[in-house]
Design a protein that fits this description.
Largest sheet: 13 strands, mixed
Shape: elongated
Oligomer: single chain
Strand content: 25-35%
Helix content: 25-40%
Bound molecules: coenzyme A
CATH topology of the largest domain: Aminopeptidase
Radius of gyration: 21 Å
Order of helices and strands: EHHEEEEHEHEEHHHEEEHEHE
CATH architecture of the largest domain: 3-Layer(aba) Sandwich
Length: about 325
């Protein structure tokens, strides 16, 4: 008879304490350099306030926590595991613990009309790359392959001098005033002709959900998100999300027939100029590792590679 037991719970103070200590004692990935459990407790409390977990899955061995994962709703049909989860004690029975958690996650997804679950490994760097490789081996072994590989770039704005740009001769409008359907069409046509793996592998309803989440998110910055118009037609857009200490370019692109004329560079520099005027100190952007056009463009502007984010997804389509 196994000594392991899967339990699902809601957040409360004592769960946060228990989980923080557990994560601290089993530090991996993004938690590797955390100096005390308090740092993890603060992070978990903060993230719970902003994005409450929908479900907490815990495995206990004789009552003691030995593995856990939280499920957070991303869009109507997509859920994310909390970062670097599941986190599991490295013991002889770790595979058994992981299997129990996976079973719980799959059961939950099936009874809640979820079409995809994303496990995100953010901030991968030289320090924690081995942690990721260990996790990836387990995910791959379960047939849960890599679905996204993004490079995360940042640009410090304090001493950044925005180079002069030519006038584009197109209309620039705050995105909040754009027609949502026209914008969706532009977004859809733009990313259909891109190297963005996540978009290309998503179902039509997932694409729509992701788009709506981008423009209706609490993080959406209406003063830094723009569309560019050629007459009445929207042909380009920048959607910015405000995070703790940075502005993040969440979605960005232009229609195929407007490309390779320096327009995207111009759009980005205009947005950065507005960020500087608003006192922003840092801008970040995530780009699919295969998207060399976008990557080269960001590098040319002066962005530096900060880390990588890899996602493993379970699809139920
Ligand atoms: C990535 C993307 C925004 C670039 O748009 P763009 O307007 O073509 O970008 P720019 O013209 O400013 O620069 C792109 C390239 O065109 C080149 N270019 C610029 N002006 C040019 C001109 N007049 N003639 C020829 N090439 C030119 C640039 O040097 C650059 O080349 P490089 O990548 O080899 O260095 C666009 O391809 C796109 O929307 N892709 C799909 C969505 C996407 O991937 N978004 C980014 C997600 S992170």
């Amino acid at each position: 008879m196994t000594e392991l037991e899967l339990i699902t719970e809601g957040w409360n103070e004592s769960i946060i304490d228990e989980v923080s200590n557990f994560v601290f004692n089993n530090r991996i990935g993004v938690y590797r350099n955390t100096e005390d459990a308090d740092g993890i407790r603060r992070y978990l409390t903060n993230i719970q306030d902003r994005f409450p977990a929908e479900k907490i899955l815990m495995v206990r061995r004789k009552g003691t926590l030995c593995g856990w994962a939280s499920l957070n709703r991303d869009t109507k049909s997509i859920v994310e595991l909390g970062r670097w989860q599941p986190i599991i004690e490295q013991t002889d029975d770790e595979d058994e613990i992981a299997n129990l958690l996976l079973e719980g996650i799959l059961d939950y997804a099936k009874s809640n009309e979820i079409t995809r679950i994303d496990a995100k490994f953010s901030e991968i760097n030289d320090n924690n790359h081995e942690d990721y490789q260990r996790c990836a081996k387990w995910f791959n072994g379960k047939g849960i392959g890599k679905s996204e590989d993004d490079v995360y770039l940042t640009l410090q704005l304090e001493h950044f001098k925005v180079p002069r740009t030519d006038k584009l001769g197109y209309w620039l409008v705050w995105l909040q005033y754009a027609d949502e359907e026209d914008l969706y069409k532009c977004y859809h046509d733009t990313f259909s002709k891109s190297q963005d793996t996540e978009f290309l592998n998503s179902s039509e309803s997932q694409k729509r959900e992701k788009f709506e989440q981008a423009i209706h998110s609490d993080l959406f910055n209406k003063y830094l998100s723009f569309v560019w118009k050629d007459g009445e037609r929207i042909f380009g857009f920048v959607i910015v999300h405000s995070r703790n200490e940075e502005e993040h370019i969440h979605l960005f692109g232009i229609l195929d027939e407007y490309r390779r004329k320096g327009i995207a560079k111009n759009m980005l520099l205009k947005t950065i100029k507005e960020m500087i005027a608003g006192g922003c100190k840092m801008v970040s952007i995530g780009v699919d590792a295969k998207n060399t056009t976008a990557y080269n463009l960001y590098k040319k502007i002066g962005f530096n590679v900060n880390s990588r984010m890899i996602v493993h997804s379970i699809n139920f389509k």
